[in-house]
Amino acid sequence: MRRLLGSGARFSRGCPLLLLALLCASSGGACPCSEPALCRPIAGTREFEVFVFDVGRKTWKFYDWSQITTVAAFGKYDPELLCYAHSKGSRVVLKGDVPVKEIVDPANRTAWIARQVDLAKKQYMDGINIDIEQEINETSPEYYALTALVKEITNAFHREIPGSQVTFDVAWSPACIDKRCYNYTGIADACDFLFVMSYDEQSQVWTECIARANAPYNQTLEGYEDYINLNIDPKKLVMGVPWYGYDYKCLDLSKDHVCSLPNVPFRGAPCSDAAGHQVPYGTIMKQVNSSISGSLWDEAQKAPYYEYKDTLGHFHQVWYDDPQSISLKAVYAKKRGLRGIGMWNGNSLDYSRGSAAVEQTEAMWRALRPQ
Ligand SMILES: *[C@@H]1O[C@H](CO)[C@@H](O)[C@H](O)[C@H]1NC(C)=O
Ligand SMILES: *[C@@H]1O[C@H](CO)[C@@H](O)[C@H](O)[C@H]1NC(C)=O
Ligand SMILES: *[C@@H]1O[C@H](CO)[C@@H](O)[C@H](O)[C@H]1NC(C)=O
Ligand SMILES: *[C@@H]1O[C@H](CO)[C@@H](O)[C@H](O)[C@H]1NC(C)=O
Ligand SMILES: *[C@@H]1O[C@H](CO)[C@@H](O)[C@H](O)[C@H]1NC(C)=O
């Protein structure tokens, strides 16, 4: 499998063939792949989306490419990843982010969009994932500008890169989470689909300030029902699951596993998961077996957690998602007719290739498509 990747030295640098010359002329950059055909945009759609955020480095070589339909490249541009993904029929899309106040002016918006299309073309990419997580007030100039941005960028990409994909990342619920009051129906209509970030669901806690699951089962499902109740077609929703958890240092840890937290406010809420820090699944798996508690299961939230004592003697509680909690949510995604599933982020597993690590990573990929 890895032999196919080819080495940098074998990549074609010039434009020796007529076909390549045409590609180069239209985009301005030399195709970095061993075969010019691998620089063509991916146009087909598959029944079920598996949408992977990649944050860089080379662990993508160990992904389960039999499932992946789209990679959102949030790391440094990696032509090797582009060529490999295309050889598997998978799209690679840009990350799009801009301060919304800068695109309120229509001319500024048009200029920003043109730069994104140019960059995607130059890098032979297949679309863009718009990741704007900024605070916006309902019916503010930014509110209307954001919907207009998504409409205009989708039109531009679809026109300039046939078959390309434009998607938009939204919070776990449309209820102005983190003061992100967007026109969710307008944005959903305007793009190919929404990637629903069903994680960081404790970013704003108004009740008791204690450690909870990153993506509790019921809360996650409520978010989808709320989107669907706005008349957003389930086929416009891809479920995002976390491949990471939260490590909380407890002010107090009770015998019945209640970990109380200091109040760390976030966007108007008195208590937040910002009291903890994010840990990738691979790291969690290295710690769980040697923890005080071992892996425990919370039936109300349908999520695993464990407890450990740090070197200074403080108790911590770590909440995460594993194949069991993820497959429960994946079953709902399938049954509810969602467009697909994906994760933040693909690089979070232990890809070190020891037999325990291989088993772990395979189980996590498998959990996306429960039988
Ligand atoms: C338009 O963009 C320019 C430079 O990028 C910036 O200085 C200006 O403030 C923007 N205008 C608006 C109305 O956002
Ligand atoms: C939203 O409105 C509130 C109240 O008018 C204001 O204080 C806040 O700065 C606004 N936020 C943004 C991002 O415009
Ligand atoms: C949201 O966007 C849609 C489509 O552009 C529009 O029809 C609708 O009026 C907008 N909703 C609000 C509340 O502005
Ligand atoms: C942790 O324990 C589980 C269950 O006992 C086992 O399957 C797994 O391989 C262990 N993980 C490591 C890294 O030793
Ligand atoms: C989760 O939702 C189900 C179905 O609505 C309900 O029966 C159950 O009590 C809920 N569980 C929790 C912990 O809220």
Automatic annotation (TrEMBL):
<dbReference type="InterPro" id="IPR051887">
    <property type="entry name" value="GH18_Domain-Containing"/>
</dbReference>
<dbReference type="Pfam" id="PF00704">
    <property type="entry name" value="Glyco_hydro_18"/>
</dbReference>
<keyword id="KW-0378">Hydrolase</keyword>
<comment type="function">
    <text>Involved in the degradation of asparagine-linked glycoproteins. Hydrolyze of N-acetyl-beta-D-glucosamine (1-4)N-acetylglucosamine chitobiose core from the reducing end of the bond, it requires prior cleavage by glycosylasparaginase.</text>
</comment>
<keyword id="KW-0458">Lysosome</keyword>
<dbReference type="GO" id="GO:0005764">
    <property type="term" value="C:lysosome"/>
</dbReference>
<keyword id="KW-0326">Glycosidase</keyword>
<dbReference type="InterPro" id="IPR017853">
    <property type="entry name" value="GH"/>
</dbReference>
<dbReference type="GO" id="GO:0004568">
    <property type="term" value="F:chitinase activity"/>
</dbReference>
<keyword id="KW-0325">Glycoprotein</keyword>
<dbReference type="GO" id="GO:0006032">
    <property type="term" value="P:chitin catabolic process"/>
</dbReference>
<keyword id="KW-0732">Signal</keyword>
<dbReference type="GO" id="GO:0008061">
    <property type="term" value="F:chitin binding"/>
</dbReference>
<dbReference type="InterPro" id="IPR029070">
    <property type="entry name" value="Chitinase_insertion_sf"/>
</dbReference>
<comment type="similarity">
    <text>Belongs to the glycosyl hydrolase 18 family.</text>
</comment>
<protein>
    <recommendedName>
        <fullName>Di-N-acetylchitobiase</fullName>
    </recommendedName>
</protein>
<dbReference type="InterPro" id="IPR011583">
    <property type="entry name" value="Chitinase_II/V-like_cat"/>
</dbReference>
<feature type="domain" description="GH18">
    <location>
        <begin position="1"/>
        <end position="371"/>
    </location>
</feature>
<feature type="signal peptide">
    <location>
        <begin position="1"/>
        <end position="30"/>
    </location>
</feature>
<dbReference type="InterPro" id="IPR001223">
    <property type="entry name" value="Glyco_hydro18_cat"/>
</dbReference>
<dbReference type="InterPro" id="IPR047898">
    <property type="entry name" value="DIAC_cat"/>
</dbReference>
<dbReference type="GO" id="GO:0005615">
    <property type="term" value="C:extracellular space"/>
</dbReference>
<dbReference type="GO" id="GO:0009313">
    <property type="term" value="P:oligosaccharide catabolic process"/>
</dbReference>
